[in-house]
TrEMBL record:
It comes from Kribbella soli. The gene is def. NCBIfam families: pept_deformyl, PRK00150.1-3. Fe cation binds at residues 104, 146, 150. It comes from the Bacteria. This is Peptide deformylase. One of its GO terms (biological process) is translation. Residues 191-201 have a biased composition (Acidic residues). Removes the formyl group from the N-terminal Met of newly synthesized proteins. Requires at least a dipeptide for an efficient rate of reaction. N-terminal L-methionine is a prerequisite for activity but the enzyme has broad specificity at other positions. The active site is at 147.
Amino acid sequence: MSTLPGNGSVRPITRWGEDVMHRVNQPVTDFGDDLQTLVADMVATMNAAEGVGLAANQVGVDLQLFVFDCPDKEGNRVQGVVCNPVLELPEGKDRNLDEGDEGCLSLPGAFTKCARPDFAKVTGVDQHGKPVSFEGDGLLARCLQHETDHTQGMVFGDRLSRKYKKRLFAEADEFAPDYPSDWPISPMVEHEDDHEDTPAT
């Protein structure tokens, strides 16, 4: 059973290149009704896009906020809402990199390897202003890092070499006709691809 808010409305997903995706977003300071509606809409949008995480700027809103529903390495499902996230990563001998595939709902259809620490912890507050903390490994670690990056105006393409970034954009261009401008309000065109089991954030 989901602990995330329901009854939201699906919004179009903002794509890479839009200004809100590439600047540090504003801290959340108002925890009123508008924020509750936004969070519910983000959850609905994430689910409609079959993603495991979604940041506020991915629906065009300039706030340091993300929602997620993602399994860890053992398959345990972890869900949450994080406002004003602070990321903590292992250092020194405790730091191990996972070079798994990564994708982004704001560059739909494209995936490439992106090395990230295999464990992450995020602290912040939820949509009601109450302190929260999430940590984990596997896909969850990647998700927490990816979404926190979004709140700081960074997309995962910023972490890639020029060669891998070029390949990523070439793959995105290939699949672009399958994703309407208002996706996931309008469904994507069904197609077979090599990444159907790799969720994006």
